[in-house]
Every structure is written in structure tokens, then in C-alpha cells.
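testing teh design pipeline on a random one, pls ignore if ur not involved
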């Protein structure tokens, strides 16, 4: 039903409002693309397996709803779509859980399955929907318009609390303007929360708190994921999810700007200030949507069968490992007889040192470090051992993760190329490839960490 009172102002489309539409359109397009990516991926044929792209689809739709409501709000077109007022608030509480479950799912070696306990993450969105009930369901269109655009009409707002007890709460909001006098009533605990929320803008601080909490969970999950990958593989390009941290930084920047906007409105409640900060917020959000959508569509499967095989080593790398697990293949290089002498006890220092020597000899003799996608399971197979034993020796005896161990050899190989008299004519990217790196960025990072210089600086130093 449409209001009978005049609109608060003539509906007008501005540059900032167009930015809302562009951002919403991008979010919807990426949501469709991510959903299609989900349906075309046979890996998720099991209906109970959680698909990461479904969560990003929910995230994109939530962002689109928020942006579209801001468009209707800023242009005045809410006058014609009164039932949609404030519907974006519950969606604000879905963004954090959606992003977290995406990160949780893609960083799991086996696709996680749906569990009913996961529905607990929907409680804040459900609660805010209930507490907004007096405005959503019990208020006629004219009253909703006056309440929403109280500063435009203008409206004098009065609150009469008839019963202040929590369970029997009863209050009436009087809205008086030159176009209409009307009321909004609030009853019971829901009414109490509704009034408290209006008085304090609590829901917005709760949304920011939710985003902050889930963003922190995402950061911790990505950090743990990166730490695990360093134990499993010698190359982390496209699987370390660093781009998630970039998006989270943008999200936190937006949250901080929104809190500053709310706080500053008590001091600088000017139209020009609000327009400037809104433009900054939603321009940043539009950039974040594009960045997130492109990166998510480009994201490949992280856990290949070889990485899944290696993953079990992480859980037991600090547990007791028997030398019996180090079984040599025919003609393989080994310094230890697998006689099971130590039973299930941890490897003695002398045995661990012998195994470490065996590992180094195998990597150096066969130049396994030149295999750009070498994994822990590949090395264990070459040694005739298990991933558990090799992981324990690398981390506890050699004192390096598998990633650092292999890349140290690659850096040394790159040094030989850079110190060659012919290296001046060879591009750095080619040297990185020849040394076993599968990307220039990984080469630069590993080389500078090891030597304190870039590859170019190292090469220049050799010839000056």
C-alpha cells in the first residue's frame, strides 16, 4: 500500500545514488556467476557437502540488498516501495557468516557437511527481524514514511511509555507533522528492544561488531591455512587465499568509516558531510565487490589429491613416530634400517639426524626442488617413507617447513644462474622458472627473505 501523504522530497537520482545501483548490479551479476560455478562443479554433487560458492552468492545478494535500499533511501523512491524500508538490516548480519563459511569451506581438505548447529549463525539476523516487527508489520504506510524521513517532513517525535516493565512493556510513539499526526505502538519485550534500538542505533553497532568478529575468524582461519600449506607444498600461488585478507581490510575500512559517520553525525550533521562519506564508503564497497567477485571466480580448488594425502601429516607431526614408518624402496637412498627398534616412541635425535641427511641427499641428488609443484607426499614417496615421518624430521630436526626447505634450494639454484656471465641476457622470470619457482612474485619474496636483496640487486652486485 502506498502512502497518502506527500513524498518527503521529489525523487531525484544523483551521482552517489547511481554508484549504489552500479554496485548492486555488480553484486547481482557476480552472485549469478558464482551460483553457476557452483552448479557446474561435480565436486559438490553430494547434497550435504557445503559448497563455498553458495556462501559467496549469499554474501553478494546481501550486499546488493543493502546497496539497493540505500539507493531507494537517498533518491526518495522509498515513497513508492514502503514495504521494503529497513529490510536490509537482517541482510547486514548475513555478510559476516557468509564470508566466514566460504573461508572455512575452501580451507578444509575434505568438503565439510551441513550440520544443524550452523544455523545458530543466523540467530542475529532472525532476532533483528523480530525486533523490527513493529515497524515491518504493525505500522501503516504513512506512519512508516514519517518515521523514516522524520528529519525531512519535519516531524516532532514524542514517546509515551505506558508500562516500562520488560515483559509488559507498552509505549506509543507520537509523530506530529504539518501533513499528518499518527502513532506507532510497541508492546512486550519486542517493543522494548524496538524502542531501545531507535534510541541508540544499536543495530548498526551490532552489524559492525558482527563483521569485525567474523573478519577476525576469517583472518585466523587463513593464517592457519597458510601455516599448514607451508608444511605441505613448495608452491602456494593461487591457494594461500591472501586475497581474502585484502577484501577483509576493505570491509573493515568501510565499517570504521560507517562508525565514524554515525558518531560524527552528532557533531557534523550536515548534508555535504554525509554525501562525502557515503560516496567514499560505497565507492570502496563497489571496488571490494569487483575484487571479491573476480578473485572468487578465479579461485581454483586448493586441495588436490596429493595435498589431501599430505594433510594427515599435520595432525601427527608432533606425535610419536616409529622408524618402521621409514621403509626404503628398492635402490632408494636411506641411512636407517627400518627394524622397528624404537617401537612407537618418538624418533631419537641420532635417528632423526640420519633421516634428515637422507632427505637432504635425496633432494640434492635428484634435484627434486626443480619440480615446481613438489609436495610433501611426493618427497615421501621418493624416499619410500610416509608424510608423517618426513614432516616430523623437517619441522623438528631440520627446523624448516617443507615450503622453506625446498625454496631454500631453489634460491641457491637461482644464485648460480644470476652469477653466471650469461645471466645479464636472461630475464629474471626465466631464472625463476629454471630454479623451480612457478611465479616471479614467489621468487622475489623467497630470494629477498633469504639474501636480503632482490634478484636484480644480487646479479648487479656480481658484475660491479
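output:
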Amino acid at each position: 500500500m502506498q502512502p497518502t501523504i506527500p513524498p518527503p522530497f521529489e525523487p531525484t537520482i544523483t551521482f552517489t545514488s547511481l554508484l549504489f545501483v552500479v554496485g548492486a548490479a555488480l553484486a547481482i551479476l557476480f552472485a549469478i556467476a558464482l551460483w553457476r560455478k557452483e552448479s557446474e562443479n561435480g565436486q559438490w554433487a553430494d547434497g550435504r557437502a557445503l559448497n563455498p560458492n553458495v556462501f559467496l552468492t549469499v554474501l553478494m545478494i546481501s550486499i546488493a540488498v543493502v546497496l539497493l535500499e540505500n539507493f531507494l533511501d537517498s533518491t526518495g523512491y522509498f515513497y513508492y516501495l514502503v514495504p521494503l524500508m529497513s529490510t536490509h538490516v537482517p541482510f547486514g548480519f548475513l555478510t559476516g557468516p557468509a564470508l566466514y563459511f566460504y573461508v572455512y569451506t575452501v580451507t578444509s581438505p575434505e568438503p565439510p557437511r551441513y550440520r544443524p548447529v550452523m544455523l545458530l549463525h543466523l540467530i542475529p539476523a532472525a532476532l533483528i527481524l523480530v525486533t523490527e516487527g513493529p515497524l515491518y508489520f504493525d505500522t501503516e504506510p504513512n506512519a512508516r514514511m514519517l518515521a523514516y524521513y522524520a528529519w525531512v517532513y519535519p516531524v516532532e517525535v514524542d514517546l509515551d511509555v505506558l508500562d516500562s516493565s520488560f515483559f509488559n512493556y507498552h509505549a506509543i510513539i507520537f509523530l506530529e507533522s504539518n501533513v499528518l499526526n499518527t502513532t506507532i505502538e510497541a508492546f512486550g519485550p519486542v517493543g522494548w528492544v524496538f524502542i531501545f534500538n531507535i534510541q541508540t542505533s544499536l543495530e548498526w553497532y551490532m552489524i559492525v561488531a558482527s563483521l569485525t568478529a567474523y573478519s577476525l575468524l576469517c583472518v585466523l582461519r587463513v593464517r592457519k591455512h597458510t601455516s599448514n600449506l607451508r608444511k605441505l607444498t613448495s608452491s602456494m600461488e593461487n591457494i594461500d587465499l591472501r586475497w581474502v585478507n585484502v577484501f577483509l581490510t576493505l570491509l573493515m575500512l568501510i565499517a570504521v568509516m560507517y562508525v565514524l559517520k554515525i558518531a560524527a553525525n552528532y557533531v557534523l550533521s550536515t548534508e555535504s558531510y554525509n554525501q562525502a562519506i557515503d560516496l567514499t564508503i560505497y565507492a570502496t564497497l563497489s571496488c571490494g565487490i569487483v575484487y571479491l567477485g573476480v578473485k572468487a571466480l578465479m579461485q581454483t580448488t586448493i586441495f588436490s589429491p596429493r595435498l589431501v594425502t599430505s594433510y594427515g601429516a599435520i595432525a601427527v607431526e608432533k606425535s610419536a613416530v616409529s622408524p618402521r614408518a621409514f621403509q626404503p624402496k628398492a635402490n632408494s637412498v636411506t641411512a636407517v634400517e627400518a627394524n622397528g627398534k624404537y617401537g612407537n616412541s618418538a624418533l631419537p635425535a641420532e635417528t632423526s639426524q640420519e633421516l634428515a641427511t637422507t632427505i637432504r641427499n635425496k633432494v640434492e641428488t635428484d634435484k627434486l626442488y626443480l619440480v615446481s609443484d613438489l609436495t610433501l607426499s611426493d618427497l615421501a614417496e621418493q624416499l619410500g617413507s610416509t608424510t608423517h615421518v618426513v614432516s616430523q624430521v623437517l619441522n623438528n630436526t631440520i627446523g624448516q617447513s617443507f615450503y622453506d626447505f625446498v625454496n631454500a634450494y631453489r634460491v641457491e639454484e637461482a644464485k648460480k644462474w644470476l652469477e653466471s656471465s650469461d645471466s645479464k641476457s636472461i630475464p629474471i622470470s626465466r631464472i625463476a622458472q629454471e630454479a623451480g619457482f612457478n611465479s616471479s612474485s614467489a621468487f622475489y619474496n623467497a630470494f629477498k627473505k633469504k639474501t636480503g636483496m632482490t634478484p636484480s640487486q644480487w646479479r648487479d652486485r656480481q658484475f660491479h
